[in-house]
Amino acid sequence: xxxxxxxxxxxxxxxxxxxxxxxxxxxxxxxxxxxxxxxxxxxxxxxxxxxxxxxxxxxxxxxxxxxxxxxxxxxxxxxxxxxxxxxxxxxxxxxxxxxxxxxxxxxxxxxxxxxxxxxxxxxxxxxx
Length: 128
Prior knowledge:
- By secondary structure, the chain is of the alpha+beta class.
- The protein contains two helices and six strands, in the order ααββββββ.
- A hairpin with a 2-residue loop joins β4 and β5.
């Protein structure tokens, strides 16, 4: 595997080389992780503004490929730790009380870390 210098020139080295200081490796990893987070945030920004279903689908597929999942919790029990209530829909069915009726704004999780809670509409028992 070829390694490259910061200026882009090939060092001709392999993963077994020991001439890279461990602190430099940490710095490079931290930079790569920060860059990943910035790209994820840019994709979420683009998703919020996308008007084409095809563009939304492609962005979500790309994010899913790196472990970022779209969260649309319709049919799940509302959980204030994972969902943000945006509204309520009255229901006569006691089984639906507290269930997410629809997702107003898609949420996202990076593996197990919540990036943005989905904003949802929740069924609520009608009051007499």
